[in-house]
Amino acid sequence: MKLLVIKIETSHEVEDALTVFAQDNLKALGTEARKRSDFEQAGWLHDSTVVEMDDIKDLPEDMQFMAYFDEEADREQLIKEFTGKLTELKTYGLATGAGKITTSYIADQDWNTAWQKYYHVIDFSRHLAIVPEWEDYQPAFKDQQLIKLDPGLAFGTGNHKTTQLAMMGLERAMVKPMTVVDVGTGSGILAIAAAKLGATDILATDISDESMTAAQQNAALNDLTNIRVQKTSLLANVDGKFDIIVANILAEILLDLIPQMDAHLNDGGQIIFSGIDYLQLPKIEKALDENGFKIDLTMKQGRWIGLAITRKEA
Ligand SMILES: C[S@@+](CC[C@H](N)C(=O)[O-])C[C@H]1O[C@@H](n2cnc3c(N)ncnc32)[C@H](O)[C@@H]1O
């Protein structure tokens, strides 16, 4: 099988927006963003980037964004969609760079290898590190928990800021063994993080088949038997209540989740949201307020907002 690759010469300011647009709206099989500055600084920055100068000689001044699609995908339509998105992002005052779009076809196998080359250990916190299945990692602290991961085609390598905000929220919330529902689990990364932080039982939901497969395989990769998966939209048809509801999904979808939360949250329960573009925050605040919830903590990374939420006092 071959893959269609769409390459865009653009700017780091639109990395997150293009990633979400490609994955959620255009159903890209995968995305990559190669920033010249990341590569140039990788030698001395303590991050998960590798540098091979040969790989970057053709990079644009700021960032190259790449999205991978099935070879049958409509190339012209995708170019049109990305062109439209770049124009829209520009109206928000964001730099979109040259905006030059080129396309090519590569063998599926090449994509897998290329992608693995740029995905490395994320030494996330005192308690958690994300370790790709094919990497070896020795934690500095014996009790740092490792999340072993092969995200496959599902969202959730741990590199995305929204995933990291949700993980920070989980670390803060998990002060004793608790039950958790991870809504929109993708690769299962947050469900696994919850298990590693000491959750007792975890339910992971998603609407996509790829996510169901990836989450199950990743739970097994981590020898976890306390993660169940359920293919459903948000919390529809989900039984029971949980101590923690965590969801890293776009704001428009979180708005549908908010009215479902009360029925699935235990007394004293906590909710963690991520995936909210800061421009969408007022809508989320209003919906939370109208549904009896309050925000206890707001976290921010770039344009992305994460929230820790509880019920308003009775
Ligand atoms: C941004 S990804 C988050 C993946 C992972 N939890 C993470 O934090 O990296 C959002 C996920 O939500 C899923 N999703 C989108 N709409 C959904 C819905 N209505 N119900 C359940 N899952 C949904 C997508 O398939 C995708 O896997």
UniProtKB/TrEMBL annotation:
Compartments it resides in: Cytoplasm
EC numbers for this chain: 2.1.1.-
The protein's role, per its UniProt record: Methylates ribosomal protein L11.
Gene3D superfamilies in UniProt: Vaccinia Virus protein VP39
Family note: Belongs to the methyltransferase superfamily. PrmA family.
Alphabetical keyword list: Cytoplasm, Methyltransferase, Ribonucleoprotein, Ribosomal protein, S-adenosyl-L-methionine, Transferase
Underlying gene: prmA
The keyword Methyltransferase is assigned to this record: yes
SUPFAM superfamilies, sorted: S-adenosyl-L-methionine-dependent methyltransferases (SSF53335)
Protein name: Ribosomal protein L11 methyltransferase
HAMAP family: Methyltr_PrmA
Positions bound to S-adenosyl-L-methionine: 163, 184, 206, 248
GO biological process, one term: methylation
EC top class, as a word: transferase
Taxonomic lineage: Bacteria, Bacillati, Bacillota, Bacilli, Lactobacillales
Main subcellular location of this protein, as a coarse class: cytoplasm
Catalysed reaction equations from the record: L-lysyl-[protein] + 3 S-adenosyl-L-methionine = N(6),N(6),N(6)-trimethyl-L-lysyl-[protein] + 3 S-adenosyl-L-homocysteine + 3 H(+)
InterPro entries in UniProt: Ribosomal_L11_MeTrfase_PrmA (IPR050078), Ribosomal_PrmA_MeTrfase (IPR004498), SAM-dependent_MTases_sf (IPR029063)
